Amino acid sequence: MIQFLLNQELRSEHALDPNLTVLEYLREHLGKPGTKEGCASGDCGACTVVVGELAADEHGRQHLRYRSLNSCLTFVSSLHGKQLISVEGLKHQGKLHSVQQAMVDCHGSQCGFCTPGFVMSLFALQKNSDAPDLHRAQEALAGNLCRCTGYRPILAAAEQACCQAAPDQFDSAQAQTIARLQAIAPKETGELNSGDKRCLVPLTVADLAELYGSHPEARLLAGGTDLALEVTQFHKTLPVMIYVGNVAEMKRVEAFDDRLEIGAATPLTDCYDALSREYPDFGELLHRFASLQIRNQGTLGGNIGNASPIGDSPPPADRPGCADRAAPGSGHTHPGAGRLFHRLPHHRTPGKRVHREDHRAAGQPGLGIPGLQGVQATGRRHFGGVRRLQPAHRQRRGGRGPYRLRRHGRHPQARPAPVKPPCSASRSTRPVSSAPARRWAKTSPRCRTSGPARNTACSARRTCCASTSSNCTRRTSKPG
User: Among positive and negative, which fits the CA dihedral 457, 461, 465, 467?
Assistant: First the structure.
C-alpha cells in the first residue's frame, strides 16, 4: 500500500498498476482532466504538476518543499509519503489562485491547452521565490512550450505572480500538511501490486540490497525520466520495479576534503550547488540539462547508470578518480563511471547502442575538470539519427563556449557543395501530363543506374532519380 495527499485529500492505493503514470491516474482514474497530455515524453510541460515533500533546513526544522514535475514521466509509486498538487486544487472557495489570476490579467492564455502546465510552473516558482527575478522565471518556464503567446505575457504573469503573491490555502494549512505528511511517512517497505506487476519501495540500503538480490530481474526506478519512456513511448510492460527515491542514504550530498559524494538517487537540482562550487563547468552544463521539471526528477546516478546514448552527465563524469561505490554486502563492485562506460557493451534496448571513445590527446580543451581532457559520446537512437556531443572540441570564446553538435559523423561546414544533376534535358522539355504533378511523379520510371556506375558517374543520384525528365541519360544507360 502507498499513501499520499492529493491536494488536501488523503489517498491510499493498494492495487494500482505500478506502470501507471500520475498523468493517467489523474485523468483516467480520478476524472481530473485539467492536467493535459501533450508529448508524453517530458518535453512540452503541458502535464506539469507540483509535488510537495518534507525537507529539513540547516537547523533541522522540517518544512514543505514544492517542486514542479512532469506527470507523464512520474509513476504513481513515487508519490508514497508526498503531496500531489494538481491544477484543480489551486482554486479555493470559488476564487482563482493568484497565479491563475495573473495569467488572466496579463492575457497569458490563448488556446489554453498549455495553460495548466504554465500555471503549475508559476505556482512552484511563487512558492520558491521571495522577489521577482527574470532569470529564475525563465528557468522555471523553460520546460513549458506555448505556440500562441510568444511568452511575453506569460513572463509578465510570472512577474505579477511573484510581486503580488497573496497567502493561499496551502500557506494557511502548512502546519497541518506537515503533520499529515509526518503521519503517513513510510516506516516500512511499501508495495504497489496489481497481480501481474508490482513495485517495491524500500527505505534503507540494506532493504534495497535484499530486495534486489531476491528480484534480480527488477528495474531500478529513481527519477524515471528515462525508464518511463519505455512505457509511454514503446508501450512496454515493467513487471517488477524497485523505487529507490525513499532511500535516505542515496539522496545525500556530502563534501569532503578530497572528494564529493553524491547519492545515486539525488535529483540533479540538489546536486547543482555542490557541483557548481567544485566544478564550475559542470554547473554550467547542468543549466543546459533538459528543463527544471526534469532536473527536479532525474538523478545523476540514473543518468550515468542507464547508459542513455543522449545522456549529458557521462562525458564530464568520465574522468580519472570518478568512482562508483556500491553498497556494502551487495556483491557488486564498480570500477568508476569512466571505466564503467568503457566496459559497457552495446545498449540492451533494441534500436539503441552506446559507444564511448577516449580523446585524451595533449592540448585538447576539456571541461575544466582536472584530469579530463575530453570524451566523445556517440549514440544512435531508435529512429536512426546520430548525434555526437564532443566536449573535447569546444569552441573557445574567451575560455567558454557552447558545445559543438555534429550530425551524421561530419561537421556541417564539411558538407560538399551540391552537384548539378547530369541531366541533358532542361525542365522545360519535360513531358506534359494531364494528371496532377504529384501523382505523375510517383508513377514515373525509376532510375535504372545501379552498381559502381550509380555511385561514381552520378554523384547527385538522388536529385537525378527525383527528376521526371524522360531524356535523362542516367535513366536509359546501363552500368559499364
Answer: negative
